[in-house]
Amino acid sequence: MGKVIAITNQKGGVGKTTTAINLAASLAVLEKKVLVIDADPQANTTSGLNFDPDDKRKRTLYEVLIGQLDIRDALIQTELDNLQMIPSHINLVGAEFDLVETEGRESVLKNVLAPIRDDYDFIFIDCSPSLGLITVNSLTAADSVIIPVQPEFFALEGLGKLLQTIRLVQDGVNPNLSIEGFVVTMFDGRTKVHSQVVGELREHFGDMVFKTIIQRNIRLSEAPGHGKPVIMYDVTCSGTANYMNLAKEVLDRNSAEDE
Ligand SMILES: Nc1ncnc2c1ncn2[C@@H]1O[C@H](COP(=O)(O)OP(=O)(O)OP(=O)(O)O)[C@@H](O)[C@H]1O
Ligand SMILES: [Mg+2]
Description:
This protein has 259 residues and is an alpha/beta fold. Helix content is 41%, strand content 14%.
């Protein structure tokens, strides 16, 4: 059955979307069948994979969550054969309100995903920088979470609130939720505080921190403007190599778990 991984951190701009797009694309290149779900009304994954968030067809995660559209009719094929996407739209903000009265409101995404889980090896959910109902739905639907961490001074303090939310979900609707790993993003070896924060992160979380570190790389910020994962934009850049290594690490961790 496909593994569902939420990419989450309520801190904004830490590399969630960049990780969702490029980890998903790297696994697709490694011949895994991958789906990426844009669960953020900002719709950055949507436009980063070359789909117009203002498309008039209205076949986005929002229509799926409110029960207007079958999830299969929301699937978009990306430029990469093995990579599909479910787009977002700014109207996803409304789902927070629309779902409040729904019975089992935390489990709506989990339920709509069930019929297509087996079609994929990995399903990534790009979360918004909030801990609202849509993010709780993502954590409820997920088997594990990847937490991107930008190695700035306050990075660790912000993690407390996130880990608390994960614990609440574990104690409530999703006891099997695990932490796949923390991934350091936008790393710059010349910046002293970056190395310090990575050291602290490893001290606190040990092997839960991925060995792969995502370096700061301008190509990673340019690629979404061209509607492409970085591997389709510049195959030789460090961003491509870093996310490919992260993909291999995720595969290794999961094959070890399967044994
Ligand atoms: N390794 C990197 N090197 C250079 N720029 C990067 C890198 N990772 C992300 N960025 C850039 O940093 C900005 C924030 O990244 P991203 O959108 O992935 O973060 P996010 O956590 O999804 O943000 P939000 O919380 O708003 O959803 C973007 O402009 C992105 O292109
Ligand atoms: Mg984002």
